[in-house]
Amino acid sequence: MSDQVLIFEMGPRDGLQNEKQFVETADKVKLINDLVDCGFRKIEVASFVSPKWVPQMADAEDVVAQLPKGASSKFAALTPNVRGLTRALGTGLDEVAVFASASEAFSQKNINCSIEESLARYQEVLDLARENDMPVRGYVSCVTDCPYTGAIAPSEVARVAKALIDLGCYEISLGDTIGKGTPETVNKMLDAVLDVVPAERLAGHFHETSGRAIENIAASLSRGVRVFDSSVGGLGGCPYAPGASGNVATEAVVAFLHGQGIETGIDVDKLAEVGRFAKTLRTD
Hints:
Layout: E1 6-9, H1 11-15, H2 25-38, E2 42-47, H3 60-65, E3 74-78, H4 82-88, E4 95-101, H5 104-111, H6 115-131, E5 136-141, E6 145-146, E7 150-151, H7 154-167, E8 171-176, H8 183-193, E9 202-206, H9 213-222, E10 227-230, H10 250-259, H11 268-279
Parallel strand pairs: 1-2, 1-10, 2-3, 3-4, 4-5, 5-8, 8-9, 9-10
Antiparallel strand pairs: 6-7
Helix pairs in contact: 2-11, 6-7, 7-8, 8-9, 10-11
C-alpha cells in the first residue's frame, strides 16, 4: 500500500453549495486561504453554474479572482456545460470538472437530461477544455444507490466512468451521493469499474449519511484508490438528493489515514481551526 494519499478538499464548493443563506464572498475566500495554509494540494473552490439553480455559487468569478497567487495548492471548479467552462477559462483556475450520474432518474432530476445526453454535452466541454490545455476531472454520482430508484448496477457505474475517461477526463471521482454505500457494495462497484479504469485514475467521494464513509474509504484503499474527496467540517449535501447529509469530514479522513501511517501532507492543528470556522458558515 502506498504511504501517501491525496485529499481533494471540497468544502468551498460542494460543502457550501447547498447552504440556504448566502455565504459572503469574503468568508469563502478566507476558507480557501485557510485551507491552502493547511497544506491541501487540490481544492475545489467554485461552480460556474446558473445562479438560478445554485444561488450560493453566484459569486464564482469574484471568489476565483481573489484566490491566492503563487499558492502551492491547485484550484478547481465545476463547469457542467460550455457556458460554464467559457466563464471559467482565463480566470487562473488549474482544472475544471464535469459530472454525470450512474442513475438515469438522478440525471434527470439533477441536470434535466438523460445520461447519454449529458455525455454528449460533455464532449463539447472536453473539446473546448482540450483546446485551452485545461485538465478536466469527471464525477460519477450515485455509484451504489440512487435516492429515487435504489440500488445501482455496478456495470452502469463502470460504463459511465469509462465513457468519461474516453471523453478525456484525467480522473474519475466515484460519488456515493446519498451515503448509502457499504464496503460490500463499494467493493462490488469497484470490481466492475477497475475492469475498465485503473485505480490510479480513480477517486472516492463518500457522504456520511449512514456513518460508513471511513469504512468505504478503507475498502477503496485496499483496492488501490489513493485520492479521496472530503469536506472540512463535514459541510455539504446535494439539493437533488433527498436525505443526503454532508460529505465525510476532512478531519475524520485525515485522522484515519494518519492512524494507518499514510501521509497526507495536511497540518492537523491548522485543519482543526479551519474546521471550527467552516462550521460557523452553516445556516441550517
